[in-house]
Design a protein that fits this description.
The complex is a heterodimer of chains A (933) and B (308).
Chain A lengths: L1 E4 L11 H10 L5 E4 L3 H7 L11 H18 L2 E4 L11 E5 L9 H18 L3 E5 L8 E2 L1 H10 L9 H14 L4 E5 L3 E2 L5 H11 L3 E6 L5 E8 L4 E7 L7 E8 L4 E8 L5 E6 L3 H6 E6 L8 E3 L7 E7 L11 H9 L3 E5 L7 H6 L5 E5 L7 H11 L3 E5 L2 H5 L14 E2 L10 E2 L19 E2 L1 E2 L8 H4 E4 L5 E8 L2 E6 L14 H13 L12 H7 L6 E8 L5 E2 L8 E2 L13 E5 L2 E5 L9 E2 L2 H4 L4 E2 L6 E2 L1 H22 L4 H18 L17 H8 L2 E5 L4 H21 L5 E6 L11 E5 L9 H12 L3 E5 L14 H11 L6 E3 L26 E3 L23 E4 L3 H5 L16 H20 L2 H5 L2 H7 L3
Parallel strand pairs in A: 4-5, 4-7, 7-9, 9-34, 17-18, 17-19, 19-20, 20-27, 36-37, 36-38, 38-39, 39-42
Antiparallel strand pairs in A: 1-3, 3-35, 5-6, 8-33, 10-11, 11-14, 12-13, 12-15, 15-16, 21-24, 22-23, 25-26, 26-27, 28-29, 28-30, 28-31, 31-32, 40-41, 41-42
Chain B lengths: L8 E3 L11 H23 L16 E6 L11 H4 L6 E5 L6 E6 L7 E3 L6 H18 L3 E4 L11 H11 L1 H4 L15 E6 L5 H13 L3 E8 L1 H5 L5 E5 L7 E5 H25 L2 E7 L4 H18 L1
Parallel strand pairs in B: 4-6, 4-7, 7-8, 8-11
Antiparallel strand pairs in B: 1-5, 2-3, 9-10
Helix pairs in contact in B: 1-3, 1-4, 3-4, 3-9, 6-8
Classes of the chains: A alpha/beta (933), B alpha/beta (308).
């Protein structure tokens, strides 16, 4: 306990108090002045010259205490609750452990450091502040600057290297003999070397005063999270047996919500394993585990998408997101999501396979996708060779275009069981082989297969067969290829061919297959083209820091020092690689504070010859500020009271001031709300126009006359549409699929010019994606007059065939007379243009089902045919000049043919816009009859 | 708003202005138009009506015919009436006598005082009342003069005449605490409007001098409410508006009761002085409407009339 003054001489100022007292006594406050005409009468009441009023005692006391407070504050009173301060004159080196173990007790550490600085301030000595993480040698500053630096210190999310501090310590003592060293320790050994302990010992032996402030807090840490299919476990570490016997861990998801909590007992060990028994769906959401109440980066461990839950990429041939129950991906997702992480291609991705492979899945599922040779095919082949599992489902596309990434050769078109043309009944499953991968699964008799693709009966087919129907035809075949394998389901993944996808067996079969897939994702060097250029085709991907932990274990913006890591990074967290999430594209990896095998070791204080004192803030209480504040308050009160007593109008001014201040405060915050940029400005003008108004579009062929005809034709059709229907399209647009965004146009008219160069594979992929997203393309070969049955195809036809090899096309058929496309606006028999002889091809409809009862007048799929191929030169018939006169003669000719051509065009446009709506409308009469109308 | 007692006072000090620049006059001139307008307004609401003397006398309106008494001058006979009968008649007119009213409004420095309790200062109120009274009287057929300034006139524009006379005399009037000595005809009526803060003895002497020449009339004491109650508290320094020394009263609240008694005594002394000289004593507070004062004054004058 000690009370001292920095400048005791200033206390002499207290002697002036009697003088102030006397002065105040003789100068009373001014009375209020009042004009008063009958003053003479007043004067007659009382003797003249009344005695001057005394200063009120409380005002006197207020003023005297004000003066006294000022004088005492000048003297600098300081009170120290602990021992009287050691007045150490030499410079002080303050070493602070600022790794994550110090984070839980950081406030106490700062307080202790502050107390050391207080002592230095009082002694007037200089201080060098040396946080362990600081690389530069400590600078001598006065205590005030050191305090500012101290306030800016934050614990680091890693363990700094003490050997740097050891060198600094030795250098400092050499440079400043007679100095004092204070080390605020976190009590942990940061590395195996004992250079710091030796340095401390050496310095102490050299006669320098060394103080160590220790910490009774035993830090806990988490290491080595493992997310298996069974449970999520993590190791909890403590440095000594004296630490807490129990720890409570909690798991949190991306939003910070608590998913689960578990308490683990150390049972006299330094390492214990905590196990979260959570459902896999919940567990897969966990991104962060932490020890509750232990606010340090070491007590937090991060879970990234690299955890051992398998990743499955899924691609469908004719994906239709709008109707999930018709999409094979829907069934796959439902079946896979309980035990695997499923990824789907971004909508509109030009090359979904490449996209998904870049995320390094363990399994790729292709549902009815035929693989034309190209980048995707090569990438998938490489994926399988390097150990990936490729699971394929059959379907109309695969049945028509088998490729080599299949376990067996397939017969074209498969077989239909139990259809209208078959005596056979749907087939059930045979029992699984006891040695096969599906051994032990119950062969559910509820499963029936109506349609499948058939394997050619090659030798070795039996060995490749994992499951078969009860007539012995293979249902699932598989083959090892390279390090990976290919599995083929001979049915498709939705319910149109069999009810397997909605059976529980499907889930079990997929789980077996996914379990068979390799543990670690195959290394892949598939990059999308731009990334390849940017990263110079290096195998290692660069992961940029996204969110990193601070020393307290809180995720936040990455620290400015954080640098990207390469994919092989495993080492412990460092200053340039703080723990946290790092990402590249959609992939996220986590850098942990502690490695999986790390342990916590206590610092050997005995080796350093130190006996740590407990952290205790030996604070100094400086009374100067409160005294000055007191004097200020007294001054304000005195001013107010004086004016009050002399009747001055103070309140009005006071009120006005307060009002003005309030206005200022009200007005100020509104100044900064106008930031923000205009995102629309980055959109190209023609894109904006295309998006704002629906319009027809044609593909620029490069032939001026053909393009002009197409433009004029679409213009004529647009006029007809505006006149006859409720759809009023804007000016037709000319698009180049290689350059322009196609998504804005419901329908593309593509006149084929034989001499035009073939579009690149990338353009073809884009066109393919457009068709899959619901766009319709009308290819017009304009060669109906040239076509001869049995002849070689015309140049235009050949061009289209070449081009369609790059497209993932479904089966086509000549538009049947009951197709909805013939009924969408007008009732038509065929689609004529300048010529009438050409056929119109559309996507094949499914065969008429047997149980549909009476013949339906119209048939439709659930989506719009993505492709219409004609050879009748539609645009030539639609085309008209500005005066409304037709531009081209027709063959055979006649106004009716032109009218029918326009009607066909209207039907086509209506078909693309309304889909199968008209197939319902034609039933209106029947529906009304059934409703009893 | 003030911090203590809630009552504040205002005073325009005429003495601080340079006399040669006529500040007092222009200050008075600034408020006179407004005051004359108000005086007309107030006069319109006051009827000074009892003018017929209800007896025969010198006048213009017919009063009665009476039988001729022998010995009267024959010229008095009304031949037109007498020709209709056998007797001679004399036509009598109603006795009408215009009175001379002398008005005095105190324009001394103590009058330009107002407190926050009243809407205007005493001077404005005194001038308003005086001019309004002049208007009422002239419309009632009397002649009105400013005491010591103008001869009695019975003009329609008497208010303007009085106002310009007051304006011309503003410098002198600012120093006059008492009504001036002036030549009065016999049976003159004098109306004095003032705060009457001067010693009652001096006033009594002056009134006696008026009474000696046969004048009578009324005194209207204009009182600011604060002058009656002393509604101040706290340490107060009272500044005399009549040029006396400031008076440090200590805590004004403690003086309130004693002051009220003393002021009442002063008022009583003034009233006694008025009664002794045959004058009517009236009082008017500036926080009351001016019309009220004008009416009281008119009624008081009629009482004086009736006493005769």
């Amino acid at each position: 306990m000690g009370f001292s003054f920095a400048a005791p001489a200033a206390l002499l100022g207290l002697l002036t108090l009697p003088l102030i007292y006397w002065l105040l006594r003789v100068t009373p406050p001014r009375p209020r002045e009042i004009y008063f005409p009958p003053t003479q009468i007043l004067r007659e009441l009382k003797p003249d010259a009344p005695t001057p009023s005394k200063t009120p005692w409380w005002l006197l006391a207020l003023r005297l205490s004000l003066a006294a407070a000022l004088v005492v504050a000048m003297a600098g009173p300081v009170w120290s609750p602990s021992s009287p301060l050691a007045s150490q004159a030499g410079p002080t080196l303050l070493i602070i452990d600022d790794g994550w173990p110090s984070a839980p007790t950081w406030d106490r550490r700062l307080a202790a450091a502050g107390a050391v600085l207080d002592q230095a301030t009082h002694a007037g000595s200089t201080v060098a502040l040396a946080p362990l993480s600081g690389e530069a040698s400590p600078q001598m500053t006065d205590a005030g600057q050191a305090r500012q630096r101290l306030q800016a210190l934050r614990p680091q999310p890693y363990l700094p290297d003490r050997s740097v501090a050891a060198a600094q310590l030795t250098d400092f003592v050499k440079a400043h003999p007679g100095s004092r060293i204070v080390w605020i320790s976190d009590g942990l050994a940061h590395d195996d070397k004992d250079s710091f302990a030796r340095a401390l010992k050496g310095v102490a032996e050299a006669g320098v005063k060394v103080e160590t402030l220790g910490d009774e807090h035993n830090p806990l840490a988490l290491a080595g999270p493992v997310n298996t299919a069974k449970s999520l476990s993590v190791d909890v570490l403590r440095a000594s047996l004296a630490g807490p016997a129990q720890a409570t861990l909690s798991a949190h998801d991306k939003m910070g919500r608590t998913l689960g909590r578990v308490t683990v007992d150390f049972a006299d060990k330094l390492r214990a394993t905590a196990r979260f028994d959570l459902p896999i769906e919940v567990r897969n959401d966990a991104t962060l585990l932490l020890v509750e109440g232990e606010n340090s980066a070491g007590a937090v461990t991060l879970l990234d998408s690299q955890s051992t839950v398998k990743r499955v990429a899924m691609i469908a041939g004719g994906a239709d997101d709008a109707q999930p129950l018709l999409s094979p991906l829907h069934y796959l997702e439902k079946a896979l999501s309980p035990f695997a992480q499923t990824r789907m291609a971004r909508p509109g991705a030009a090359e979904p396979a490449l996209d998904l492979l870049s995320e390094r899945p363990n399994v790729v599922v292709l549902a009815d996708v035929s693989l034309p040779p190209g980048e995707s095919f090569d990438a998938l082949t490489k994926f399988v060779e390097e150990g990936g599992a490729l699971v394929r489902f059959a379907g109309p596309r695969l049945a028509n275009a088998a490729d080599t990434l299949l376990p067996t050769r397939l017969r074209r078109n498969g077989r239909v069981l139990g259809g209208a043309m078959s005596w056979e009944t749907p087939k059930a499953l045979a029992d699984f082989d006891s040695s096969g991968p599906f051994a032990g699964l119950p062969a559910s008799k509820d499963v029936s297969v109506q349609r499948q693709v058939l394997a050619e009966p090659d030798p070795g087919l039996a060995a490749k067969t994992w499951a078969r129907l009860d007539d012995g035809t293979p249902l699932v075949t598989a083959e090892r290829r390279g390090k990976g394998m290919i599995v083929l389901f001979h049915v498709n993944a939705d319910t149109s061919w069999s009810n397997l996808p909605i059976s529980g067996l499907f889930v079990d079969m997929l789980k077996r297959i996914v379990d068979l897939s390799p543990q670690s994702a195959p290394a892949s060097n598939v990059e999308d083209a731009s990334a390849t250029q940017a990263l110079n085709t290096n195998d290692a991907r660069i992961f940029a820091p996204k969110r990193t932990l601070d020393g307290f274990g809180v995720l936040g913006e990455p620290s400015p020092l954080a640098q990207p890591i390469t994919s092989g990074f495993t080492g412990p967290a460092r200053a340039e690689h703080p723990p946290g999430f790092y990402e590249a594209g959609d992939r996220v990896v986590a850098v942990q504070t502690l490695g999986a095998k790390d342990t916590l070791k206590p610092f050997d204080f005995a080796a350093a010859g130190q006996d740590p004192r407990p952290l205790q803030a030996t604070r100094l209480y400086d009374f100067r500020t409160p005294l000055l504040a007191l004097a200020l308050v007294a001054l304000i009160v005195d001013t107010l009271m004086s004016s009050l007593m002399s009747g001055k109008r103070v309140w009005r001014g006071f009120g006005a001031t307060v009002g003005v201040m309030t206005m200022i405060f009200l007005v100020l915050p509104h100044n900064d709300a106008w930031a923000g940029d205009d995102p629309a400005s980055s959109i190209a003008t023609h894109h904006r126009e295309a998006a704002l108004k629906a319009r027809l579009a044609y593909v620029v062929s490069g032939d001026r006359q053909v393009d002009e005809t197409a433009r004029a034709g679409l213009e004529g059709l647009s006029l007809a549409l505006t006149a006859r229907t409720s759809f009023a399209p804007a000016e037709p647009a000319a698009v180049d699929p290689a350059r322009d965004e196609l998504a804005f146009y419901p329908m593309l008219y593509w006149p084929i010019v034989a001499g035009a160069p073939q579009p690149s594979a990338k353009t073809a992929a884009k066109v393919s994606a457009y068709m899959k997203q619901g766009g319709t393309i009308i290819f017009d070969t304009r060669d109906a007059l040239m076509q001869r049955p049995g002849d070689a195809p015309t140049p235009e036809g050949q061009w289209l065939r070449d081009f369609s090899k790059n497209l993932d096309l479904p089966e086509l058929e000549i538009a049947p007379s009951d197709h909805v496309i013939t009924k969408t606006f007008y009732l038509l028999d065929n689609f004529v243009g300048r010529y009438v002889t050409g056929d119109t091809w559309v996507e094949a409809l499914p065969p008429e089902s047997k149980d549909s009862g009476e013949a339906r007048p119209v048939r439709a799929t659930d989506s719009v045919s993505a492709i219409v191929i004609t050879s009748n030169d539609l645009a030539g018939a639609w085309a008209q000049d500005k005066g409304g006169q037709p531009m081209y003669p027709l063959t055979p000719g006649g106004a009716r043919q032109r009218e029918m051509a326009l009607r066909g065009g209207v039907n086509l446009v209506m078909y693309t816009l309304t889909g199968n709506y008209k197939s319902d409308q034609v039933h209106v009469r029947d529906l009304l009859e059934r409703l009893g109308q | 708003m003030s911090l203590s007692g809630g009552v504040d006072t205002q005073w325009r000090d005429p003495a601080q202005r340079a006399p040669d620049r006529g500040e007092a006059a222009s200050e008075l001139a600034a408020r006179l138009p407004r005051l004359t307008a108000r005086a007309h307004e107030i006069a319109a609401s006051v009827v000074y009506g009892l003018h017929g003397r209800r007896r025969a006398g010198v006048g213009e309106t017919f009063w009665q015919y009476r039988p001729f008494a022998s010995g009267e001058p024959a010229a008095r006979i009304d031949w037109r009436r007498s020709a209709r009968g056998d007797y001679l008649y004399v036509r009598e007119r109603e006795w009408e006598a215009a009175q001379n009213y002398f008005l005095w409004m105190d324009c001394s420095s103590s009058m330009s005082f107002s407190s926050s309790l009243a809407p205007e200062d005493k001077l404005s109120r005194a001038l308003t009342l005086g001019l309004a009274l002049a208007d009422v009287l002239v419309r009632g057929g009397e002649r009105v003069a400013a005491l010591g300034l103008t001869p009695p006139v019975s003009a329609r524009n008497v208010v303007d005449q009085l106002a310009s006379a007051l304006h011309a005399n503003a410098e002198v009037a600012a120093r006059q605490e008492l009504p001036p000595e002036a030549g009065l005809g016999s049976r003159a009526k004098i109306v004095m409007i003032s705060d009457f803060l001067s010693p009652p003895e001096e006033l009594a002497a002056r009134l006696k001098a008026y009474a000696a020449v046969g004048a009578s009339g009324a005194l209207l004491m204009v009182i600011d409410p604060s002058e009656e109650t002393l509604p101040f508290d706290g340490e107060t320094l009272f500044l005399d508006t009549d040029g006396g020394e400031p008076f440090h009263a200590g805590d004004a609240r403690q003086l309130q009761r004693a002051y009220a008694e003393r002021y009442a005594a002063h008022k009583h002394a003034i009233a006694e002085a008025a009664r002794g000289a045959g004058f009517c004593f009236l009082q008017h507070h500036t926080d009351r409407p001016a019309a009220e004062g004008a009416l009281a004054l008119a009624m008081g004058l009629q009482d004086v009339e009736a006493l005769r």
